[in-house]
């Protein structure tokens, strides 16, 4: 297996000993969260840190937010001293994007540690620049020798459990940073736009949970400004900003970026909302989402504005990022015998089949924002995910998944595994046609991990249609247990460059490994 070991100062990320520790990069932003003032004195500042995303062999995206109008400039170098730095002229940051911006870096060397720093220049005087904010990422290698390590999880600042200064904030992000991953896959529910953060919550034992709060997070998000404030909230946490500066991300979205269990065309019956049309809310959220995360398929990078995409990480790994929210049909009893729309929509399903067939990677991770065989209800009669609890032949949204699984088998596509979050506990399921009502597929694994900073929830039931067997599960006995009562969870995937073996570890906050599974390349039914 891979011999890379995590450490507080990773050997290939020497930036931790130098430029990442610049105080300006980690200074706590003003909690007010309002739009920056046009009348601020001094030089532009990047108080919200930096982050990189959708990194490939020769390219990557770098993000920043300014405290006023500014020109974004990025410099890259092979060393943290920034000798022989290469300069990239970025966009002008202004109120149209909430003073955020992303710069695409192209022509980078493959398999190298890239050190970058972002400078913000006064638009009227380019010589006046703020203090640089630094970060680092590693481009995808062309060869497979070094291997790949990445983490995944989701569900951040949910159910009223926000940044608690008494606990050191979202400290699980610091723990993940020390694992030294090549990237982090955020499996959705990056925010809880429908979950206000109150100043304090009384726990069952009588103790008090304290939250950092902001004006935008005091109510459900409806306006564009409120959605922007919800995305900005997580960046108040020093652990998150430090993590973002070291670990590039692959981000997808799910329901809580807009509202719990939303679907296109929904009209809300919720007294908290003055805007009842969920499509209007979703449009505002997607705009803020595109402003606060560096995604290659959202504007201005892609005019279609897709969240679904494939990220290729050398010969060992392709990551297929799904969007199970934007194209789904309405939540229902989910027992229809024909369903062309399903949970992915016809166009996304065709894309996924095509890209899986083209993939030559040893491992093909399907990043799903919802689980397949776990029954996730929406009220008393409707269902939110794929499964509906009927263990028989595929019905409703299961028909689309059956079609996909059949395609994977018949095209002899090997090395697929599914990673997800959403249900606020951690588990491992093995799917096998010998146990299933639907049998025309090859066995595969699904691993669940989360939340990162939200309430814990009891386990849901399994649906037998695709023959899942739960090999591991850890979940609380009651709903919405606080992070002070139950651990937060994240998963780790380590692919060995020599053997190609893939090891999945389900981890909990505090460093404990709960479950480990080693998968061999090219084998079926393991």
Distance between the termini: 18 Å
Q: Give the rounded overall mean pLDDT.
A: 92
Give the spatial strand order of the biggest sheet: 14-15-16-19-21-20-22
Largest sheet: 7 strands, mixed
Radius of gyration: 22 Å
Domain Phospholipase D N-terminal: 49-139
Domain PhoD-like phosphatase metallophosphatase: 156-505
Protein name: Alkaline phosphatase
Signal peptide: 1-34
Features:
526 residues; Phospholipid_Metab_Enz; disordered N terminus; Immunoglobulin-like; globular; Purple Acid Phosphatase, chain A, domain 2; alpha+beta; 2 domains; 6-stranded mixed beta sheet; 7-stranded mixed beta sheet
Description:
With 526 residues, the protein is of the alpha+beta class. It has two domains: 42-139, Purple acid phosphatase-like, N-terminal (Immunoglobulin-like), CATH 2.60.40.380; 148-519, 4-Layer Sandwich (Purple Acid Phosphatase, chain A, domain 2), CATH 3.60.21. The protein is 13% helix and 26% strand. The chain is built from seven helices and 25 strands. The strands form six sheets. Strands 14-15-16-19-21-20-22 form a seven-stranded mixed β-sheet, covered by helices on one side. A six-stranded mixed β-sheet has the order 13-10-9-23-24-25, with no helix packed on it. Strands 3, 4, 6, 7 and 8 form a five-stranded antiparallel β-sheet that branches. Strand 15 (317-321), helix 6 and strand 16 (363-367) form a beta-alpha-beta unit. The model is unreliable at 1-27 (pLDDT under 50).
